[in-house]
Amino acid sequence: MGYDNMNWGATEWLAMSVMMLLFWGLLIGLVVWAVRNLRTDDQSVKPPDGSGSGSAEEILAERYARGEIDEAEFDRRRGLLHAAGK
Questions:
Q1: Per-residue pLDDT tens for 28-54?
Q2: What is the distance of C-alpha 66 from the center of its chain?
Q3: Which partner for 12 in 8, 72, 83, 85 could form a disulfide, CB atoms 3.0-4.6 Å apart?
Q4: Confidence (pTM)
Q5: Is the domain of 63 the same as that of 82?
């Protein structure tokens, strides 16, 4: 009747190809998104510049080494860390 023995023309093949590419693209994108967001290792939590790593005392020592704080401030803050049970 209206099916023409399933002989598809160029438009139908193009539409089917586009839909197939969209389907597989969305499926692969979903898998990549799930893998990236469901990881629980430490690398996914830490900032890429490494500023989120280390204990409070290590960060304090790094700031002192960079010259951001002076010796008196370093000693005062280190004492506060030890007094707080660090």
A1: 999 999 998 887 665 545 555 555 556
A2: 28
A3: 8
A4: 0.40
A5: yes
